[in-house]
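Sequence in, structure out. Go.
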Amino acid sequence: MSEIIKPEIAEKIKQLEKKFKNSGQDLGSYLDGLLHDRYLTYWDYIHLDTLLSLQIPRTHFPDEEIFITYHQITELYFKLIIHELKQIIDDKLQTAEFFTAKINRVNRYFRVLINSFDVMIKGMDRDQFLKYRMSLLPASGFQSVQFRLIEIYSTPLSNLVNTKERTQFSEKDPLGEVFEHLYWKSGATDKETGEKTLTLKQFEYRYTPRMMRIAKQVQHSTIFHKYLELPEKEQNNVHLIEALRTFDTNVNINWLLMHMGAAFRYLNKDKGEVLATGGTNWKSFLPPSFQRIMFFPNLWNEEEKENWGQQWVTHQFNTAK
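Output:
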């Protein structure tokens, strides 16, 4: 005697039949596929074996694996951050609640990244780093396109122009022209000759088309624009304003300060500094007080802008004593 099908199961079968009929498909074929399909395992679902095979050191120094793994983890967090920013950009509801929830997620991701930077600062042997780093030339964390995309998704390109030229550009200028003056390009350009480093040349060749395509897509719909498009009541939401200010601080001050800590730990020395692997001018490029990049300048008063990232100067002078 065959088992009696439970009413709730029968109802689900009817719903499935309707679903596949509407799409021109046969439920029986899908059930056959389900019958022969293997059970899903955790390691297959997240492709664990593939993931663990991607750490490939170029030297025999053990700590190089830490360096590679940490940067790969960072890039995965950048991917999650971009995932949230794109949802804000695509949103049509224009509510502070949705906006705040997504920015808070981004802030949690950045908080993890900022707090985890001790893995880089304290978690590697300095002598090993200074040796295996020579096999990385001219690769550099400078070449993280995902971080550049976070900037592009967040604010108009004119807010990302190097500090000396920023007042010369606005959103009315052609994107291609503004793009040539972004602050990070000056960090990989010889101050005396104006020649771009190989690191920058490689990065531009590989990613400029992608960055420009996305910059055009979000030219009038960055996170900055989406905030200004909110109804006035939603714009004035204190939780949203605080979340955006925290986002700005996390990316453009705290994240950079952690990089400065790592650079001083591994690249600074009594008689001058060790050059970064990509040849970047890290002492003039990384300090937030030098570039004063702000995604949402309208959310900061003049005193806050003037003192942007000044804690770096105090910290480094105190450390040097």
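Check: Residues 313-321 have pLDDT under 50 and may be disordered. The CA atoms of residues 155 and 224 lie 5 Å apart.
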